[in-house]
Amino acid sequence: MKNIFLFLLMAFVFTACGEECYNAPQPIVFEFVNSNDENLIANGTLGNYSIQDENHVSIQLTKTDDNKIVLENVGAYNGTKNYTFYSNVKVFDFSIQSSEFKGGCDGYQINKLTFTGIAIDVTDEKGYYKITLE
After folding, report:
1. Which are the contacts of 46, defined by CB distance < 8 A and separation ≥ 6?
2. Tens of pLDDT along 22-81?
3. Any residues with CB less than 8 A from the CB of 60 and at least 6 apart, and which?
């Protein structure tokens, strides 16, 4: 009986330890509109677009069903990185400042998103950024 108890205790200790968790940064989502609030992807105006980081590495972008763009795998670092958005309508720069997540799990959080360069209208819509181009 004592051996069974020790075995179960050791099995519990080894399975309970080492639980890893990771908090990925919240996704960054852009919606591009014109001055009439029409989605530029939906109406075909914004046909070609891409984003590159400061090292000229392309960022993976995913188009959602409601014609927004999700920036994939950004913000998982300490510090600030600069990015450039390229399109047939407009080119602009922005930066993402991130830091390590201060909690029980490893991970990163995005602290600040800053648009620089040209004058563009950006609105934080609680969950995505509405960017007026043209």
Report:
1. 32, 40, 87, 88, 89, 133
2. 777 888 999 999 999 999 999 999 989 999 999 999 999 999 999 999 999 898 899 999
3. 71, 72, 73
